[in-house]
Design goal:
single chain, alpha/beta, eight-stranded mixed sheet, globular
Length: 276
């Protein structure tokens, strides 16, 4: 998808630059929609999904969250509260009215916490391979080690796609789109130390209390080979009996990259069914 299909919107909150891809859309017949990528990701991961939602009548915005993409690379504050405050600032600055919050992985977690903190804000919540989680003490170090092990700089886009996709072309393409060219190679647009610190709170505790506080309709879209197991989903459904859940056979954690068209249909069907 060419960049001419969206417009960059930049705002600054507490000295932190936040960059958004504004896909436009009427926002009349459909809901204003905010898309939140996962850890070490970027707003461009939604480039296949965003126009599907926009063409269905939604006003669509995708945020590069702090520490990622074209937003502030080295923010001092990477607390969960800071990520939520960024979402609220984007909603206010861009005039999004009762937005549909859609997030993948850590972006879904941010969306969840936003919905819990401001129950009257979102009209609905879509979690893509995301949930309230459970304490994982070694998670930051594990993820940080994986990110530092990337053989950067990648000498070519094809090399990056092959490495990052691990056999799945669409996943590799999505991750490669998040790289920047400098010094004769392709580099990540994030700092591994920042990514590691962003997971500190998730490593210490779960967020079931916040999940139980969500009051808007919810859809959970999971990959059969993703990170949310049966027991975790069962607990999510117990705390939110109205939750709609869908598991996609053959898909992994990056459902939004692997099956964007199907994800779009699921979201649009959910929105129509719930009348939101």
């Amino acid at each position: 998808m060419s960049s001419s299909s969206w417009t960059e919107r930049v705002l600054v909150r507490d000295g932190v630059r936040l960059s958004c891809r504004d896909w436009g859309g009427s926002g009349g017949s459909g809901a204003d929609t905010l898309l939140l990528h996962g850890l070490a990701g970027h707003a461009g991961e939604w480039d296949a999904l965003a126009p599907l939602l926009r063409d269905a009548g939604h006003r669509v915005v995708a945020l590069d969250q702090r520490g990622h993409g074209s937003s502030e690379r080295l923010p001092a504050d990477v607390s969960r509260a800071a990520y939520v405050a960024d979402v609220l600032a984007v909603v206010e600055e861009l005039g999004l009215v009762r937005p549909l919050l859609i997030g993948q992985s850590l972006g879904g977690h941010t969306a969840l916490l936003t919905a819990a903190a401001q129950p009257g804000l979102p009209r609905a919540l879509v979690l893509v391979e995301a949930g309230p989680g459970e304490p994982e003490p070694g998670l930051p170090e594990q993820i940080g080690g994986w990110l530092r092990a990337w053989p950067v700089p990648f000498p070519s886009r094809e090399a990056a796609v092959a490495y990052l996709g691990d056999g799945k072309r669409a996943v590799g393409e999505g991750w490669a789109d998040g790289l920047e060219e400098r010094d004769g190679g392709l580099w990540p647009r994030f700092d591994p130390d920042v990514m590691e610190r962003s997971l500190d709170e998730n490593a210490r505790r779960d967020f079931r209390e916040e999940w139980a506080a969500v009051r808007c309709p919810g859809l959970a879209v999971l990959g059969e080979g993703g990170i949310i197991g049966r027991e975790q989903y069962a607990e999510m459904a117990r705390l939110q009996p109205g939750l709609r859940g869908v598991s996609l056979p053959g898909a992994g954690h990056d459902v939004h990259l692997e099956r964007p068209e199907l994800l779009g249909r699921l979201i649009l069907d959910f929105v129509r069914e719930k009348g939101v």
